[in-house]
Amino acid sequence: MSGTASVKISTVLPQTIARYRILRQLGAGGMGEVFLAEDTRLDRKVALKLLPTEVARDPVRRQRFMTEAKAASALNHPNVCVVHEVGETEDGRLFITMEFLEGATLDVRVRQGIPPLEEIVSIGAQAADALEAAHAKGVIHRDIKPSNISLTERGQVKVLDFGLAKRMAQPEAVDLEVSTRLQTKSGQVLGTPHYMSPEQALGREVDPRSDIFSLGVVLYELATSRSPFAGNSLADTLDRILHAQPEAMARFNYNVTPELERIVRKCLEKLADRRYQAARELLVDLRNLQRELAGTPAGSAVPRLAAEPLLPAVARASGDSVTAPAPVTPPPVEELKESDVFIAYASIDDQPILQGRQGWVSQFYRNLEVRMEQLSGERVKIWPHPSPPGSSAVDERVLQHLPQAKTLVSVVSPPFVKSDGCRREVEAFWQTAERTGSLRVENKSRIFKVLKTPVDQRELPPHLAGMFKLLLDYQFYEVDPMSGRLREFSEEFGEDARRSFLEKIYDLAYEINQVLKSCKTAQIARAIPSATPLAPKVVYLAETTSDLRAERDRIRRELQERGYEVLPDAPLPVDGGELAGAIKSHLKRAHTVIHLIGNRYGMIPEGCEESLVALQTRLSAECFRARAAGRFIWSPPGLQTDDPRQAEFIRSLHESSVGMEGTELLSGSVEQLKNLVVKHLTAPPPTKQAVAQAPDQVKRIYLICDQQDEQAIEPLEDYLYDGGFEVKVPIFEGEEESFVQIHQENLKLCDGVIIYFGQASAQWVEMKLMDLLKAPGYGRAKPWFAQAVYLAPPDHRRKERFRSHAVEVVREVGGFQPQTLATFVNQLKTVHQVSAPG
C-alpha cells in the first residue's frame, strides 16, 4: 500500500491493533481507514487497512471477505502488493495488513503531467503482468484504477487491493462528484464509475476481460491526462461507457504511436469478445512495443512516431547554435506515379526563419506523414516538390506523372502565387482529373488547399482562382482580432501556435486518409461490380462565426472519424441568391443539422439582409419542419452579446415555433452536444414491420415514482391513459424480488418513460436514470422513443437546478397542466409515422 495517499486525519488514532503499533494514518474513506503500522514481531513497516464495521456485522459478507482475502494473500508476484495477514480486532472489526510501499499511486502521477511514452508502456506491461498472475489464480480485481496502482521510487508497479474491491461494495449514498462504489437492488454495479467495463455498468457477471477494459482506461488517462468516458453525472458517465467511442489519444498527445493507440482501443472494446481475451495477450503486445521503443538510440526521438519537438528542449531554450536538419528532398521522378500525396509548394516557404530550425514545409511534411500513418496504420508515400518563384522551366516529367498521384496538396502563399511551377502543377493535376471524371472520389475532392499565409484573391490567375474557390481552406494562420496582426501556425511562434499547427495537421491528415480509403474502395468496386457500400449518414454542420470555429472543427473532426459525411464540403457561394440554393441543396441530403451560435452576428452575404448564421438557421427550420427530430442549436454556457442584432437573433430562436418541433436548443459543453448528435444518428430507424403495426399498436408509458408520490402521479396517469396510452406504474406491495422483476420488465417493454421527481431525492432520480441506461442488460432491444423527468413540488434548490441533455425535463407550475407533456406525447405519437426505410 502506497505511503502517499490522500490523508483524512481521525480525531483519535488507535495505539495498537493486534500486534501492530499504529504510527500514523495514511488515508480514510468509505472503505475504512488505512494506517502506517509497525509489525512488532517482525520489526517491519506495514500498511494496515481497518475495514468498516458493517463487514463484521454481516456473517455472509464476513465469510465472503475472509475467503477472498485469503485467495488474494496467495498471490506472489513482484507487481502485486503483498497481503501479509487477515485478522480481527477485539471489538470484531476485520483488518488486513499489506506491504508498505514508498512511492505514489498513479492518480498522483497523472496530476504531475503526461509521462514519457516508455514509462506509460512500462506501467501498462507491469500491471498486465500482475493481472495475468491474479487471473491464473481465479482472482478478478474489478476495481482497477490509478489510485489502486502504486509506482515505487524505482519505477516498479504494484497493484493494490486484489480480490477486495468486488467484495466491498456498500449500499451507501452516491457522491456524483467523486469516484465511488455502487450497489443497487435491481443488479449490482461494482467498481469505480470512470473505470468500469460496460458489463459492470450493466450489472452483469464479469470475467478477467473486465479488468483489461479498466486497465485500458488507465492507460488512456496516463497518455492524455483525461478520462475517455468522464461525464457530467453518474448517468452520463455510464452512458458514455456503454455507447461512446473515446477520442483518438493522438489528438491530446502527439507522441502517442499507432501501436499504442491500437492496443488501448482493443482494451476498450464495448463487447468483451472483441477485447484481449487474456491479460497475457495484452502483455505480449505491450512488451513488443517496449522493445520497439527501446531500440531507439538514446537521447533521440522515437522514429516515425512524433515529428516534434524538432530540436532538443535545451537547445531551444538556450538558443544554442545547432545544425539544421536537412530539408525535404523529393524522391526520384519515376516514383511520383505511385505516390499517395503530392505536395506543391514554393521553395522559399521551406527556408527556416531561425538558425538551426527546419523550414515550414519540412515541418509540415514530416508531421503530415507521421499523422497519416498513425491514423491509417499503413505506410504512406508523400512526394514533396519545391518550385522557385517567378518564371522558370518546369520538369515536364513531373507534369507527365503528376496526374497519377492519388491526391495533391497545394501550400498556398504569395510566393506560391508567383511561381509558374506551382500553378502549372495544380493545373495539370486538375485538368487531367476533371477530364477523366476523377476530380472527386465518393464526393471527396482529391485536391487540398493549405493556406500558409493570406493571399489576395485578385492576384490569382482567373482560372486558378476559379479552381480554388471550390476547395475548402485549411488555414494555418489566424488574425488577432484585437491587434489585427497575423499569427502563423508554426513552432517558432510559441506553444499555442505550435499546438494549432499540429491540430490542423491532424485535420488535414484525416481528410487525406479518407480520400485514399475512398480511392482504394473505388478500385475494389471496379474489380467487383456488385460491391455497393452503404452510404454514410449526412450531417449539415452550419458555418459559424470565428469565435466558435475551433468548436466547429472539433465536431466536424469527430463526426468524420465516425464515418459520417459532413456538409458543406466545399466553400459556400458568396452571392446571396446562389448561397441560399447551395444551403438548401445540402439540407435536403442531411439527416441531421447542427448550428453553433456565438456572441457575434457574423458576416452578411452579398444580396442578403441577415447574417450567414441566421440564414442557415432559417433555411434549416423550413427544411426540417416536417421531421420529427434531427436539428440541434447549441450555444456556449452563459452566452452574452453586446451586438443588438445578435441579441435579437438569439431571442427569436427561443420564441419561434417554426421548425422547432424536433429541434434541441442546447447550452452546455461541446462533448454533450456531440454525444446527443451521435446518439440521434446511431438510433435504429423503425422497421417496416413496426410501421405496419403502428396504427393498431398501443404505446406503453412507464411512469416511475417513489412510493411517497404514488398518489401524486394520478393526474398524469389519468391524462396519459385517456390519451390512448397504456400506463405502467411501479408496484410497492409484495416481495422485493417480484417488484424488481416487474420494474425490469417495464424497462424492457415500454415505449416511453417519465421519472416523477416529487418527494424523492436527487440521488433517487439519478439511480432511475441509470436504470434507463441498464435497460439493454434486461433484454431491451429498441430505443426509448420518449424520455422525461417531471419536476413536481416540493421545490428545493437541487430540483430547481436539475438539468439533463439525455432526457426532456418538464416542470409543473401551479398543478398539473396537460400542455407540459405535449412534447413528450407528440414524440410517442409521431415516432411510428416516419416512413420505413427502403
Provide an overview of this structure:
It is a single chain. Among the domains are: 16-99, Phosphorylase Kinase, domain 1, CATH 3.30.200.20; 103-294, Transferase(Phosphotransferase) domain 1 (Transferase(Phosphotransferase), domain 1, Orthogonal Bundle); 535-683, Rossmann fold (3-Layer(aba) Sandwich); 688-833, Response regulator (Rossmann fold, 3-Layer(aba) Sandwich), CATH 3.40.50.2300. Residues 4-11, 165-191, 296-325, 524-534, 687-696 and 832-838 have low confidence and may be disordered. Helices cover 37% and strands 16% of the residues. The radius of gyration is 31 Å and the shape is globular. Helix 4 (117-136) runs antiparallel to helix 6 (208-224), helix 4 runs antiparallel to helix 9 (279-294) and helix 18 (576-589) packs across helix 19. It is an alpha/beta fold and 838 residues long. Strands 1-2-3-4-6-5 form a 6-stranded antiparallel sheet. Strands 11-10-12-15-16 form a 5-stranded parallel sheet, with helices on both faces. Strand 1 (16-17) and strand 2 (20-29) form a beta hairpin.
